[in-house]
Amino acid sequence: MVALTSWWQSAVVYQIYPWSFQDSNGDGIGDIPGIIERLDYLNDGTAASLGVDAIWLSPLYPSPMVDFGYDVAEFCDIDPRFGTLGDFDRLVQESHRRGIRVIMDLVLNHTSDRHPWFQEARSSRSAAKRDWYYWADGKAFGRRPNNWNARFGGSSWAWDSPSRQYYLHSFLKEQPDLNWHNPAVRRAMWGVVRFWLDRGVDGFRLDAINWLGKDSRWPNNPFRPGLRGYTRQTHRYDRDQPMGHEVLRELRTLSGNYPEVVLIGEASADTPGGPVAFYGNGTDELHMLFDFRLLKSPWQADRFGQLLAADQQRIPEGGWPTIVFSNHDQSRHIDRYGKGGHAERRARTTAVLLLTLRGTPFLYYGEELGMKNTRLRYRDLRDPYTKRFWPFRIGRDPARTPMQWDESVHAGFTRGTPWLPVASNYRDLNAAQESQNHSSLLSLYRRLIRLRKVYPALSEGAYRHITTAPSDCLVFLRQQPSPSDTDPDILVAVNFSADARTVTLSDFTKVGTVQLSTLTGAGSARPWHPAQFHLEPDEAIVVALPNGEAGR
Ligand code: GLC
């Protein structure tokens, strides 16, 4: 077992959705000065704060905000809604002062249609930057260049009347795809990367990377019968082409000049070989990839057990896993996993999984409070994707509502009118209250994050699957990395069911101590015996065991 070498392997990362974290100027939209005001909540160096090591900021770039910042109109600046470059520099400084690293979101696949590059490109067929984007003629009888479907609905081709050609957009039509075949595009984007690294950012979360490579001969995607919308075709040619890997290898080489920097990728689950393909050989593409398999999985011990066991084998040496249950594109997991069960109890159990599994945990703002998907009326919706599929899909706005800080007006998020409504439960569910309450979900997250720091087994140790018997329980061991030390191994037992369970671990002999149970949020002084122990409905326990138990 090799000791961890990089800060991000033992870090806990917190995703901030800037629109919704904290507004400082009363315009109803979160901003950078607001984030700075709240940094102590994230980590003030004491046990009274959450204790995270890094923040990932969803896009802050100037943008018309059709896709809420994922449509970038200028890569080397800050949107005035959020503040200025000066504010950003102060955020980096203030974060670093508290030991919090800063990870920017970087959108490589596309820009906004308002980006000056695209404005220039669409100005005429002979424009200097025309081939910074993908253009194609229509087919006879006004047909589009091919059958490709955009991720957010409809065709991937939009007609540009003045120049009488189509341009390609894999997401919204306001997000034209950049042509990564063009070396000038690469040079420009690597300039952007240097711009932010030189300002002191510690890494990037890379958006939608499996879209970078496409077949620019424009073959039709094969049709898939019986399915609807985006899944009505196999996305063989419009994404996942080898060029994407080539681009990421270039980026990795460039980031090598900044040795502490981390690159984290978001790729679709159904990309060939799975997102793990973007680790490359483990040292030549990305450091980490989001693994959404648990996030998409039903709440079942067997399923979680299988996915976790498979994962340990597939990540190449040099790569590092991630654990993620919620983000700005998904329904919040308290509702997702809570379906048909006791949501609050399961949220506590999920917190244990998030913070005891092997890999870097990513928290989504508010999950530590148990914030739920907010019920919204159609007229409150802002996200075009959410509107398009409303009310048939939950969409993304319900998971993007303002952070619930306290019981004052608008939950302390703004003194103006919030851009999305604050959830109506904020008087009973907010950070101020949970901070005072030792048995709150927030207190549980804080304690789990501290346990992760205290026990090297949790941050560095190998993962060993122990059992999923009796059914609905998952038991695994995190093995303390250096056998010569006295640090304990950590055993985690999770009851996924709404009934009590009794577990027997016949291979284990030594007595341990429960460091934390989700029922109480605390540990217990009573000895814990592996021969037979009890788990209450939806309970998870974290047990310290003398290391070397049950072999290595
Ligand atoms: C990613 C982002 C999502 C965005 C899309 C297009 O999936 O997470 O929010 O809409 O890419 O950039």
Indicate the topology.
Blueprint: E1 13-16, H1 32-37, H2 39-42, E2 54-57, H3 85-97, E3 101-107, H4 116-121, E4 135-136, E5 157-160, E6 165-168, H5 183-198, E7 203-207, H6 243-255, E8 262-265, E9 288-289, H7 293-296, H8 301-314, E10 322-324, H9 333-338, H10 343-356, E11 360-364, H11 384-389, H12 431-436, H13 441-454, H14 456-460, E12 462-467, E13 473-479, E14 489-495, E15 501-503, E16 512-517, E17 527-528, E18 533-535, E19 540-545
Parallel strand pairs: 1-2, 1-11, 2-3, 3-7, 7-8, 8-9, 10-11
Antiparallel strand pairs: 4-6, 5-6, 12-13, 13-14, 14-19, 15-18, 16-17, 16-19
Residues 67, 70, 107, 171, 207-208, 266, 328-329 line the site of alpha-D-glucopyranose.
Q: What is the strand tally? A: 19
Count of DSSP H/I helices: 14
Q: Rounded to an integer, what's the Rg over CA atoms?
A: 24 Å
Specify the structural class. Answer: alpha/beta
Please indicate the percent range of residues in DSSP E strands (runs of 2 or more).
Answer: 15-25%
Helix content: 10-25%
Low-confidence stretches: none
Average pLDDT metric? 96
